[in-house]
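Changelog-linked ticket: glycyl-adenosine-5'-phosphate example.
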Amino acid sequence: MNHEEVFKKVISHAKEYGFVFQSSEIYDGLSAVYDYGQLGAELKNNIKQHWWKSMVQMNENIVGIDSAIFMHPSTWKASGHVDAFSDPLIDNKDSKKRYRADVLIEDHIAKIEGKIDKEIKKATKRFGDDFDAEMYRQTNPRVKGYIEKITDIEKRLKQCLDEEDLEGVKQLIIDEEITDPVSGSRNWTDVRQFNLMFSTEMGSVAEGANTIYLRPETAQGIFVNYLNVQKTGRMKLPFGIAQIGKAFRNEIVARQFIFRMREFEQMEMQFFVKPGTEMEWYNHWKEERMKWHLSIGVPASEYRFHDHIKLAHYANAAADIEYNFPFGFKELEGIHSRTDFDLKQHEEFSGKKLQYFDPETQESYVPYVVETSIGLDRMFLATLCASYQEEKLEDGSERTVLKIPAKLAPYKVAVLPLLKKDGLPEKAREIIDTLKGDYMCQYDEKDAIGRRYRRQDAIGTPFAITVDHQTLEDDTVTIRDRDTMSQERVKAAELFSIITSKLKG
Ligand code: GAP
């Protein structure tokens, strides 16, 4: 199966089993807006809890808040979003498709990177074990040429974006002979800027009403509450404020399922530090966040850092943690050193001081901020893609299994009476009663046991407990492991502690 096929399968699996539905599907859907179904809501909640626990519960100097989506309109003037939160767009005159010009160029760079990978794979085959890929990159003329080309394109793109030279961006597309991915045409319009914020009016009549925006990031809700939290929580630098919540962006190029949505959720943490220490904390959080991803159990080869060429207007350093989605390595999380830009801007626009009195130095100053910002929906998609597997079994049959890390799985346990009679269903329900206060459990008595195991595999339930006639005699049950499919017989009375220790392990 190629990557595209895998992705299609993941999308249809997500719908078939109640993870993700298109929003307002009965009206043919709303583009780039999705609803989470009964299993999706569980998985999403588990990801949120896992993040909240590791950021807030495990760090005594980080606290969490929940700020409103609507904010005073001046917030977005101050943050720079009204003036600068836009994408450079370009249309293809033949296909009538619209693209982000910078993304077209980045995709072009990715294609050249693909050519380098191919050359290295070919050479690895040719030279065998002694092959030194790094040396080959530095010395092979063709690979060197590709690397020089990438460096040149990146340099030109950065310069154009920094100088807001939209004609220069178009010229780069023309010079690189970049074609429309749909039609193959090179018939491009000029590049224009397009603001991504949704606006609406507050008040019952449009006349005299204030234009307000649906927040495009949760971060500003943290900045405007910085002093409230610092004072009421008696927080000392360095400290962090975390929040999970909805954000909205009028994405023009919305594609790849829940990767780029118009309504999505972010899990953000702003870490306030003493000016001058921000690079130390920036590196700390880069490392910590990568560790968090790896602790979930996906191989390290599926992640990489990408340092930004073009820095956002508020940042002095920024990197993405990219995940190897079926459509290539793409941004999953951003780590940004935001300087004192946001707090200073809010001081200026609100006329209120947002300073910290440092008891050690007896000075007041505006703290610097290091931000970690992960898209919950992208984390959800990465989890689904990493877990989806089709396996051929020893008996020649096949199964589709979601090997979701147990702590994130929607249901932890399925309890299955072997037969629908002889008191087995009653015993199964009794077992569920001992577990459901702590773990999401599913009861299933329909169809042969093999089919029921397959259903649980398909939704990623890590443990299936089967109640049979022996259970009635000696109060033991079998517990089946989703990944290995091995079964062991255990005492029903010990199930809670067995499952708890397996989940912790
Ligand atoms: N506060 C900083 C900020 O918002 P960002 O890089 O624009 O930075 C952070 O967004 C994260 O939010 C991204 O890494 C991505 O995971 C997620 N994200 C951004 N736009 C998104 C979209 N349209 N759909 C889904 N997730 C998105």
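Closing comment: Example verified and attached. The mean pLDDT is 94. Residues 217, 219, 249, 251, 260-261, 264, 266, 268, 331-334, 371, 373-375, 377-378 surround glycyl-adenosine-5'-phosphate (CB under 6 Å).
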